[in-house]
From TrEMBL, chain A:
Gene3D superfamilies: Dipeptide-binding Protein, Domain 1 (3.90.76.10), Dipeptide-binding Protein, Domain 3 (3.10.105.10), Periplasmic binding protein-like II (3.40.190.10). Residues 72-430 form the Solute-binding protein family domain. This is Peptide/nickel transport system substrate-binding protein. SUPFAM superfamilies: Periplasmic binding protein-like II.
UniProtKB/TrEMBL annotation, chain B:
Pfam families: BPD_transp_1 (PF00528), BPD_transp_1_N (PF19300). It comes from Halanaerobium kushneri. It is found in: Cell membrane. The keyword rRNA-binding does not apply. This is Peptide/nickel transport system permease protein. Residues 94-302 form the ABC transmembrane type-1 domain. Keywords: Cell membrane, Membrane, Transmembrane, Transmembrane helix, Transport. The keyword Transmembrane helix applies. Belongs to the binding-protein-dependent transport system permease family. Coiled coil: none annotated. One of its GO terms (biological process) is transmembrane transport. It is a multi-pass membrane protein.
Amino acid sequence: MKNKFLVLLLVSLFIFSFFTAVQAQEKVTEEFVMGIEDEVSNLDPGETTISVNERVASLIFDGLVEYGKANKIVPGIAKDWTVSEDGLEYTFELRQGVKFHNGQELTAEDVEYTYQRILDPDYGSGLRAKVESIESIEVIDNYTIKFTLSEPYSPFILGMTFGIVPKEYAEEVGDEELGRNPIGAGPFKMEEWDAGNQIVLSAFEDYWNKVPNIKKLVIRSIPESATQAMELRSGGIDFGVNLDVGQLESFIDNPDYQVKSAAGAGINFLGFNFDMQPTQERKFREAVLQAVPFDQIIPQIFGVLGERAYSMLPPTLWPEDREFLKENAVGFDPEAAAQKFEELKADGVIPADYVAQVYVSNSRPNQVKTAEAMVTALRQAGLNAEVNAMEFGTMWDMLGRGEIGMFFLRFVSDPDPDYWLYRFFKSDGSLNRAFYENEQVDQWLEEARATSDQAEREELYNKVLRKVLIEDLVFHPLAHSTQIYVMQDNVKELEPGNSLLIPLVTPTANVYKE
Amino acid sequence: MFAYIIKRLLWLIPVVIGVSLILFGIMQLVPGNPAAIMLGTNVTPEAIAALNEKFGFNEPFHIRYFLMLKNFLTGELDSIYYGDQVINIIGRRLTATIELGLLSLIIAVLVAIPTGVIAAVKKNSLFDLMSMFIATIGISVPAFFTGIIFIYIFSVYFPILPSSGYGGRIWTLSGLRHLILPAFALSTVMIASTSRITRSSMLDTMKEDYLVTARSKGVAEKIIILKHAFRNALIPIITNIGNQLAMMFGGAILIESVFAWPGVGRLAVKAVESRDQPLVFGSILILSILFVLVNLLVDVIYVFINPRISYK
C-alpha cells in the first residue's frame, strides 16, 4: 500500500513536471521552413541591393537602429542616439555585450569599419548613395560613435539600419567570403548554404535582443508560384510569400491556412518621357489618362495583390494627402480624350503614322495585363497603340538612354519620402527616367532634405506630389502592391509589414509554431 | 579508335574559341549594363562607374575577351551577381543537373525502347495505337505542365513524395525521393520522342532483305527481332538519345523552375537576366563543351553497336 502510494506520487510528480516543461517550451519551434521567390546570390550586407538578398541578410545582421511597428525607427544595437542642433552630428551609444556569431563583441570599431567599407568608392556599394552625406566617422570610445555629415540630410537615420559586419573577420576573409559565409550580430546564424536550393540558419542563442523561438530556419528558393502553393498544401513549407492571384484564392477561405495582407511598399506606375514627342505635351498625357478607365482596370487585374494608388508614396508612409490627389487626379473621359487626340493630330503633334508604344517588363504579369487593357482603351479613343513587353534589363537600358515614351515600372524603397521623390523628380535624380526638369520642384526637394522639421517636410512633399502628379502629369500611380503572406494555421506572430524584411524576430514579434 | 578520340578532343579547341568569340560578341550587343541591373533602384551614376571600373567594363573589346577567356581557362572567372568564382557556382549546380539528366535518361530508355520495339513488331495492334497516341500527347504536353500534375498527384493528393527542392546526392534516400518526380516529368518528352523513333527505325530495318533471309533460314523470331533488327535499328535511336541528353543539360529550365531544382539551366537564365557576363560566358561555354563530349560519346557507342562503323 505504501509502495503504491509512492508510485502514485512519483508518477503524478513526473506528469506534473513533464507538463510544466512542455509549457515552458511550447513556443520553441524546432524547424520552420519558408519559401522565397528568388535565389539568394550574396549575403554581404554592403552589397544587398537585391531584394531577396536584403531580406535574408536582415536575419543574420543587425543594424544600429531597426524598423519597428509602422516602420518607425527604434533602437537596435545602438540603445540611444543624439542629433546635434544643426542636424550635422549623429552620436550613437552602443549596447554593451552585443556578440557576433563568432563570439566576438561588437564595438564602435566594427560600426566604423562597416560604414567606411560602404563609403569606399572602389568597393562600389549600391548603398553608398544613402549615406554619402557622411563626412567623417569618429570612434569616441568602444561604445560611442559619431557621424558628421557634410550637409543636413533628414533621411540619414534610415541609413543606420545597415547590417554591422565584424571588422576582424571581414578583413581576414575578404568581401567574397563574407558574402558567402556571413557572420553578423543578428538573430540567426548561417549553418549551411546549398546554393540555388536552400539556406539553413540556426537560432543565435547569444542574441542581444531575444532568443529566437525558431531553432532551425530553412529558407528555400521556389521561383514558381504554383510550386510554392503545392508546397504549402503538402506541408513542405510553413510560409510562402509570392503567390499570384490565382493561387491565393484557394487559400483565402481555407481554415487550414492563414492569409494575411498588409499594404506593401511597392508602387506600380505609368510614366511619360519629357524629352520626346508627343509625350512631352501635357495635352497628350492628359488625353492618355482620360482615355483609360484605370479605376476599373486596376482592381480587376491586381485583385487582392494591389490597391488603386493615387500617390507615389505607399499608404504606410507620410505625408497623408491621398484624398486631394485622388479627387484631383485625371478621370476617365473617353470623349474628351478622343477630341484631344484629334486636335493633336490636326496640329501635327501626333504624326499620321504614329503608333504609341507602351513599354512594360514581361516579368510583371499584372503590369502587362494593365498595359494591354490600356492599349485597347487608347485605340478606342482613336490613338493607335501597342504593348511592348520586354525583358527588364533591356527595357531599363532603353529607359536610361531616354528611348522610351510611355512605360510601366514598379518601385520599392525605404520609408522616407526623400528616397521616393528625390530620385524620380529631381532634375539630376538618379532615377529621373521621365527626364523631368523643374526648378521649383528641385528646390522643394532640396529643402525637404535639409530640414528636420517634420511639418515643414510634409508640406514640401505635398507640394512636390501635387505638382508632379496633378499639374504636370509626370507619372500616373496605378497600384500599391499589397504584401500577402500565406502560412499554415499553426504559425503565430508572423505579420506582414515592411516588405524589405522577413519579420521573424522583431521588436514586437518572435515567430513560433504551435 | 584512341587516335580518333584524341583528334575529336583536339577539336574542342576551335569549338571553345569559336563559341566564346560568338558568345562574347553577342554579350556586347545585348542592351543592359550589369551594374545598372544589380544596383536596381539604388542606381547612381557614381555607383555604376565604380562597378564598371571594378569589373573592368571600361577596357577595349579584345582585351576584355582575352582576359575573360584566360580567367575561364585558369578557373579564376568571377561572377558579378554571385560575387563568387564561376567554376564554383557551376560546379555546385552541375551535380544536380547531371543527376536529374541521368535518372531521366535511364527511365526514358527503360520505358521507350521496349515500347517502340513492341509497337513496331505488333504494328497496327491496339498496343501500337495506344502507345503512339500517348507518345504524341507526351511530345505535345509541355514538361512543366506534366510536372505540376505530378506534384499534385504525388505530393498533395497522395503525399508520398516531396514536391520540390534538392534533397542531397542521388545515393541518399532524401536525394532520391526529391529526384523522382522531376526525373519522371523530364523523361516524358524523351520517352515520347525515343519510342516513336525506335518504332519507325525498327519498321525500316524489318523491311530489310537480310531479315527475310534470316527468317527463311529458320532463325527464331525473337532472335531476328532482338539481334538482327533491333541492333541495326539502334543508330538513329542512340543519336536521338544523345541529342536529348545534351539538350537536357541546358534545356531543363522549365522543369528546374517548377521543381525548384538548383540546376545549370536556371543558373544560365539568371545569368542572362542579370547581365552577369562572366557567368553567362562560363556557363554557356561549359554547356557547349558538355554538348561536344556527349556527341563524342555517342559516336564511340556507334562503333560498339555497328561493326561497319569504324574510325580510322
